[in-house]
Amino acid sequence: MADTLIDHLGDIFGDQLVACEQAFDEITIEVAKDELLDICIKLRDEDYLQFEQLIDLTVVDYLQYGLDEWATDEATATGFSRGRQDLSQAKTKWKRERFAVVYHLLSVSLNQRIRVKVFIKENRPSLPSVIQIWNGVDWFEREAFDLFGILFEGHPDLRRLLTDYGFVGHPFRKDFPLIGNVEMRFDAKQNRCVYEPVSIQPRVLVPKVIRENEETIYVADPQSLKESLKREQNENAKGGSNG
Amino acid sequence: MAEIRNYTVNFGPQHPAAHGVLRLILEMDGETVVRADPHIGLLHRATEKLAESKPFNQSIGYMDRLDYVSMMCNEHAYVMAIEKLMGIKPPKRAQYIRVMFAEITRILNHLMWLGAHGLDIGAMTVFLYAFRERESLMDAYEAVSGARMHATYYRPGGVYRDLPEKMPQYKVSKFSNQKKVDELNQNRQGSLLDYLWDFTESFPDRVDEYETLLTDNRIWKQRTVGVGVVSPERALQLGFTGPMLRGSGIEWDLRRKQPYEVYPELDFDIPIGSKGDCYDRYLVRMEEMRQSNRIIRQCIKWLKENPGPVMLDNHKVTPPNREAMKDDMEALIHHFKLFTEGYCVPEGEVYQAVEHPKGEFGIYLASDGANKPYRLKIRAPGFAHLSAMNEMVKGHMLADVVAVIGTQDIVFGEIDR
After folding, report:
1. Given an 8 Å threshold on Cβ–Cβ distance, is A24 in contact with B348?
2. Chain B residues closer than 8 Å to A64 by CB
3. Which of A54, A86, A51 is nearest to A68 (CA)?
4. Which residues does chain A have within 8 Å of residue B340's beta carbon, measured at their own beta carbons?
5. Cα B394 vs. chain centroid, distance in angstroms?
6. Staple partner for B362: which of A15, A25, A127, B379, CB 3.0–4.6 Å?
7. Closest by alpha carbon to A56, among B115, B338, B241?
8. What is the mean pLDDT of chain A?
9. In angstroms, rounded to a whole number, what is the distance separating the alpha carbons of residues A53 and A212?
10. Is A222 an 8 Å CB contact of chain B?
11. Is A139 on the interface with B (CB under 8 A)?
12. Partner B, chain A 75-94, Cβ-Cβ below 8 Å
């Protein structure tokens, strides 16, 4: 099923796709920003594709991709690292465009799914809107604009959606602090709500770690663990009867 | 003749018919809606960003709080997404338990929807009836997880613990004497499965009872027939899923079309509507409750005959049992690492959808190989439905707006996230 979809994609688009890959039984195609609309129309209308539904639109900010807060790879002269590295100070490892807009499409008639990715650059990120192709994308694009600051050209009503009236910034970007920038309280003297800079400190409860080779660090083979447990129990039982 | 201008009405956010915190700006021409502009985000908690700062397992509890009337279904999508990334599969018994509770959750959700929808458009009694049955199912939630609503019961690799052998009992208090307590405890003498079996015996009759109140009710029909009609083509265009799509006559149910867990082994039907109005969607959901009841019965039968593990034995992802921890160093280390640091999930991205009571609930999970998700996107069915609000109410009367909100089964926990 999935293989045939890949074949059809190859037949229909050929070199138009930047990349096409299959992982976890899901097919992802990557397209260039300029070709997005053209490809999307074909995705909806071609006989073998028929993706008549846009299930989801989202954005991934790759700024901190692959960075960890706590080095686990190698011990230094003083042992493994103890202090947490501040991710906001770290240099990005990501070599490509910072944002990826991700579309999830569903074909109800052919029962297949596809993921479409478009990478866009950090400076004034913009993308043509697909609202003429799938009308339901309206709020998804507004949300992406609100939370990531992606501009969708041709969207009729690109307003903020989820954040507060008068909110500043794009909170789901990786460089936006989790605790936010401002806090609000009611001021009895002025008899209105006031915004002030946040008074709390950012805090990391569990540092982010990336373990390349998990096996050697703390994971034992569950089967061998069970056997060793059983052996021990037997020995204990024997010891008990002797004593 | 004086010129009549459209005027604007603010509806909500604090309004009982707004199902939470919906703020609607309605542009009215007399009593007819010209334009509806929903303002959402008043319950926005940035669940997705929070999840990025926590190990995978610590976000399961947040999933309950998304759509807070179908808690376990949200967890289901999340744990399945993690399992897909790690390439693990829970034991069969765990899958059956999950499916059984997913269907219990579907009934819970539909009962809540039925009660609130009825209340909104003037049917008081059905609300009280629906909440009676909800109470029984909440007890099942509590027996299995310890919490009536926010269960955090599903875990990557299975479920938190096996079904209890004994149901908790009512005790004599100053409010209920021995006779009353015996009566209340009548169906609680056996295990949780016996209790649920007893529930499924009587539930179809209860659904009949709701139907006697509504299905042929003249007022109910006047309020729902022909209101909020969505054609199948528009339903697809607008990204509708679940009962909203089936009400428009498209046979699409992920449990059948893209089956997950043990759904292929279970026998159930998919009801669809024909006209795509509020009344059809009402009928679809009523039938879904009966079908869920059928699925639960099949699960109970299987679970009674097949004891077994409910959690994977792989201590990379699941904690070792208490006993092993007490005298085995390795188990203790596993436990410590799992609860302080969590587990690292291989690099990659997946999208996992489940047939949530409201529609397609999807989790898009991108991992960079760390112990926390790099990006988590929650695809909430209600979000797509509410965004079509304008199209559904345009040209209707103000009172029909409430009927449309009801039929969309709006819950703000999942829309605002």
Report:
1. yes
2. 374
3. A86
4. 206
5. 28
6. B379
7. B241
8. 82
9. 38
10. yes
11. yes
12. none
Query: Which contacts qualify for B328-333: CB closer than 8 Å, 24 or more apart?
Result: B328/A225, B328/A229, B328/A232, B330/A220, B330/A225, B330/A228, B331/A225, B333/A218
Distance to chain B for A54, nearest Cα, Å: 6
| Cβ–Cβ gap A24/B239 under 8 Å | no
Q: Compute the Cα dihedral for B281, B283, B289, B292 and give only its sign.
A: negative
Please name the residue that has the structure tokens 């021990």. Answer: A232
**Separation in Å, CA of A60 to nearest CA in chain B:** 7
* CA distances, A10 to each of A29, A38, A50 (Å): 11, 15, 15
Does the pLDDT value for residue B282 go beyond 60? Answer: yes
* Chain A residues 143-162 with a CB less than 8 Å from chain B: 161-162
Cα–Cα–Cα angle for B82, B88, B93, rounded to 5 degrees: 105
Stretch (H or E) spanning B386: helix B381-387
Among B326, B351, B385, which would you mutate to test the A interface (most chain A Cβ atoms within 10 Å of its Cβ)? B351
Place of tokens 């449990």: B255
Q: Name the residue facing B368 among A66, A139, A214 (closest C-beta).
A: A66
Q: Please report, in tens digits, the pLDDT of each residue of chain A (243 residues total).
A: 556 888 888 888 888 888 888 888 888 999 988 889 989 998 988 888 889 999 999 999 998 888 887 777 666 666 666 667 777 777 888 888 889 999 999 999 888 999 999 999 888 888 999 999 998 898 999 999 999 999 999 999 888 889 888 888 899 998 898 888 999 899 999 999 999 999 988 888 888 888 775 543 333 444 554 565 566 666 666 554 443
Strands A182-187, A126-128: pairing kind: unpaired
Of the pLDDT bands very low, low, confident and very high (cuts 50, 70, 90), residue B21 is confident
Q: In this complex, is the C-beta atom of A20 within 8 Å of any C-beta atom belonging to chain B? A: no
Specify the DSSP class assigned to residue A68: -
- Across the interface, whether the CB atoms of A206 and B54 are under 8 A apart is answered yes
Which secondary structure element, helix H or strand E, spans residue B375, and what is its range? strand B375-379
Best of B83, B344, B363 to disrupt the A interface by mutation (most A CBs within 10 Å)?
B344
Cα-trace Rg, chain A: 26
Tell if the CB–CB gap between B369 and A66 is shorter than 8 Å. Answer: yes
Q: What is the ipTM of this complex?
A: 0.87
The CA distance from B368 to the nearest CA of chain A, in Å, is 6
**What tens digit of pLDDT does each residue of A15-72 get?**
888 888 888 888 899 998 888 998 999 898 888 888 999 999 999 999 888 888 777 7
- Cβ-proximal residues to B207 (8 Å cutoff; 6+ apart), any chain: B286, B289, B290, B293
Tokens of B56: 């995978």
Interface test mutation site (partner B, options A138, A208, A226, max chain B beta carbons within 10 A): A208
Chain A interface, best mutation among B230, B231, B316, B358, by max A CB count within 10 A: B316
**B351 and A104: CB-CB below 8 Å?**
yes
Question: What DSSP assignment string belongs to A177-194?
Answer: -TT-SEEEEEETTTTEEE
Residue among A26, A56, A134 minimizing CB distance to B237: A134
Contact B128, B49 (CB under 8 A): no
